[in-house]
Amino acid sequence: MRTINFIQQSWPIHGTFAISRGSRTEALVIICEITNTNAKNIKSIGRGECVPYAHYGESIESVLQQLESVKPALLTGAGRKELQSLLPPGAARNAVDCALWDLQAKQSNTSVAKQICRTSPKALETAYTISIGTPAAMASACKKAARPLLKVKVGGEEDAERIIAIANAAPQASIILDANEGWNESNIEENLKIAADAGIALIEQPLPAGKDEILRHIPHPVPICADESAHVTSDLEGLVGLYDVINIKLDKTGGLSEALAMRDKARELGFGLMVGCMVSTSLSMAPAQLLAQGAEFVDLDGPLLLEKDCPNGLIYEGAMVYPPTAKLWG
Fold it and tell me: DSSP 3-state assignment of 204?
């Protein structure tokens, strides 16, 4: 017998999280919890967390509505395969898909890691995110963070000054610039040159999705990563020649199942890989940490941006994030 619950939670962010499109002070998440009780009255509980994202047309209300629409099918035994046609890619499907992976692991006593990782999963170096602000404030934040890998939010009129300031403030760090679609055709080539001169390691989604054809015709002195332009596997072939790296996020793909397929297709097409996240708890990070094994760039610092994490959260030591324990997920 199955029972299903959808749980809304709000997690305060430490300070303010700001990108080129706006800022927020809390992370709003939804947890899908699927409980299976077998003939011996033994309960197994699978959990998955998602983050509705307004930029993709999602809200807490719309995602809950999607989740309720598939509840009857899930109660009668629908699994991950059926789920792919029951819900579109996005937050709602992510929560359910990850809950089903977790449930299967607990019922079979076989970890998700053993099913999807070629070798035993290891700790990974994760980026730490610096919110957009004045060049001086961002330089100070980079220096204070003292991390070997920084992801710095840009996408405004002062980006040239920001790039130079943060590179000078953190000369030993590898730096990812995330413009969140904030650049345009008139400034991208100059910004790319400044980034290259500053030794930037990667630039994420500089142009708006669907308005990035210019990337095919200009030099890439720094590798360019697709985020908003890359949601699912079927997007990838159209991005060949535009981007060098693909950022896979479970809330875009609609769960671990599609993310695994997207990872494999991206490798086949010659893309580098980044595995990223929304601002959320370790329950969201857990499947992504396993997906990220072997990725060139890992950005799974969501819990570090919160005032506190969920129970049994991932272990973060310095710049490293460790694989999940069974008490958390998988």
Answer: strand
d(CA 32, CA 240): 35
Left if phi > 0, otherwise alpha if psi is -120 to 50, otherwise beta: which for 209?
A: beta
From-to residues of CATH 3.30.390.10 in the chain = 2-109
**For the whole model, what pTM was predicted?**
0.96
Which CATH architecture does the domain made up of 124-321 adopt? Alpha-Beta Barrel (3.20)
Look at the domain 2-109 and name its fold: Enolase-like; domain 1 (3.30.390)
Active site residues: 153, 249
Buried b (16+ CB within 10 A) or exposed e, 41-66: eeebebbbbbbbbeeeebebeebeeb
Could you give the count of Cα atoms lying within 13 Å of 159 in the half-sphere of its Cβ?
27
What is the C-alpha separation between 168 and 11, in angstroms, rounded?
A: 33
Q: Note whether 298 and 69 are within 8 A (CB).
A: no
Q: What is the DSSP string of 98-158?
A: HHHHHHHHHHHT--HHHHH-SS----EE--EEE----HHHHHHHHHHH--SEEEEE--STT
Per-residue pLDDT of the chain (330 residues), as tens digits, is: 899 999 999 999 998 887 877 778 999 999 999 999 887 888 899 999 999 999 999 999 999 999 999 999 999 999 999 999 999 999 999 999 999 999 999 999 999 999 999 899 999 999 999 999 999 999 999 999 999 999 999 998 899 999 999 999 999 999 999 999 999 999 999 999 999 999 999 999 999 999 999 999 999 999 999 999 999 999 999 999 999 999 999 999 999 999 999 999 999 999 999 999 999 999 999 999 999 999 999 999 999 999 999 999 999 999 999 999 999 999
The answer to whether the beta carbons of residues 263 and 248 sit under 8 Å apart is: yes
- Residues composing the chain: 330
Instruction: Give start-end residues of each CATH 3.20.20.120 domain in the chain.
Output: 124-321
Tell me the HSE value of 181 on the side-chain side, using a 13 A CA sphere. 12
